[in-house]
Amino acid sequence: MVHTAGRDAFSCAVSTALLVSSLAAAAVPQLLIIDSGKLAPVTMDGDSPRFHIPAGSRLARNEHPRIVLVKEDLAALRQRLRDPLIAKEFAAMKARVAYRHGRGWPTSPLAEALLYKLTGEATHLQNLLKTMRPEKPSFLYGWAAALDLVWDDLDADTQRAFSDGVTAAVRKGGSLYWRPCLHLCAAVYEGGKGPNDAELLARMKQDHQRYLVDWTRKLDGWAAGRGGSDMSHGYNGEHAYWEPFCHVIAWSHATGEDYIGWAQFPKYQSAFYFYHLLPVMKPLAVEKIGVTRTVDDPSAITPTHAGANGLVFLTHSRENDGLGLTWMDLFREQEPAWNRGRDAMGRVLWWNPEQQPLDYTTLPKTRLFPTSGHVVMRSGWTPGATFATFRCGRFGQIDGYWGRNNADNLSFTIRKHGPLAIDSGPVHSQNVSILGFRAGRHGESARAIADYGRQTIAHNSITIGDQEFTHMDWRGNPRSAVVRRGGQSVPQQKEWWQAWGFDGPQREFQEGRITAYRTHPAFDYACGDAFHSYPPGWVEEITRQFIYIKPDVFVVYDRVTVPDGKEQPCWLLHSLREPRSRGAERALSPDEIGPQFLWDGKQANPHPNPGGHFAMGGDSFLVESGSHTEVGKGWLMVRTLFPKVAACERRKIGGQ
Fold this sequence. Notes:
- The structure is a single chain.
- By secondary structure, the chain is an alpha+beta fold.
- Among the domains are: 36-351, Glycosyltransferase; 364-464 and 512-527 and 547-558 and 568-574, Beta-galactosidase, Chain A, domain 5 (Distorted Sandwich).
- The protein is globular and about 80 Å long.
- The model is unreliable at 6-26, 233-237 and 297-305 (pLDDT under 50).
């Protein structure tokens, strides 16, 4: 049983209000892509979009711009600037560019290009061409959009240099060969008449299928389960959102077909954010599930990568998404002075000042996300609310065989006045540094990721004994993917399928499942089954029931049956601050602990100061909220109801 409390009293009420938003007639003109009636239906082959460049399209007749906006949009933008609210955003956009110039910081290529087209000030074009080098193109959406905007202002030699540079980069062996580049190729394609057009056309056809159609279909499938993706919060925060989304935007403009209406996943974005919103509002942050999961990383609160946070306003206006507008208003309120105005460009382009924001506190406090397999629970929307997640579902699929995907089924997190029961699994190098791990090297090959962060031991889940499993490739050679210390496995070995009773490998397989779920004003309940998360033969049954008795009590009931009595289950709970037993504690000797090693960047060496393991007496312990350096205002009391004290061993592990 887990009980949370704070030092201040609070109350909450359950709301079942429907979200209704009304939109008055727009007082300012909107850009073409906002109105689905101005775009043709997508050309289809059966139920799949077909790669097709209509004869009269901007791409076919080589008309620029055609990536982030079109020629007639420039006139509409000038009219938009007559509105005082839009004009204020334009001033903020200009101020941000000037501020960064004054400090020698890089500026947004798209912002420079827009300022040049809307003000006519040649310095913006000069600044743009200083930073955008033809021999080093970028797949980031603002680079292609900026080049497209100023294309007609470049001389023929400069145009050719950019076309040659892009073609070389997307060619096999080029710097961008493995990146999604449909928008980039579309920016320099010359309607079939350019010397590079045959190569660019072939690459556009490839990326249309791989990155626009297939990736969007995958995201739409996750969105059907209320949001999320194989990258989890990357769905909204980084590549998995903006890369396919900018392809959808660019191809809608380039072909005149309504790909933005065909894609469904952007429509789920704002609600997904708010359900994962952490109670402490400054900095605005979300609880992330999957690749980017860590204790405290507020950088993924909006699609910030390459300035892509501006893209969200397109969805907000087109879908009349007042909830998303509220999110961006909150985002703006908590921006530091040095980074203010990041969202101004998106507002200039697509924001509708007449649109009304929605009150996010009318959302239900509990939500099941069945495709990703997790439940979010909270006592309320106040800063002092209790917040928890329970996870048992599909493992991620990013970056290859195991990649940066957490083996974290049956895990949970709890927060109140700061983190209490945390997820300590860093599967990204930026999160390794946040938690202070000694990574050894960067990327998913870092030992802090491969041997800890993505392993079950890093999460509040269950391991089975100390056994390990090394995956083999098709030749029978060992892979680098090793299941550590009785944990779960993200990939499946080929022979496992038959051992589990399947004829062969399963597509879109859910290694864990939420088998029961209920929410009620007094409690939330979820049951997870993680049998297929462990190698065959390690468990006969493994389920976890996670009950939240509102506002401050959690009951976790595990049912585990193992075929080998020597391999005992281990119940894991991680915290930032050191837990304190309510019974006696005793430091374990090096012999009791076993071998300990320290990675020096090249190899594992015997630890010079072994220790950090303690036996904990009694049936309960306390954890204070907060970080290593700052104490919070809440606490977590953990008490074992079963098995009894004499039937299990309690060990505290921590330190360097």
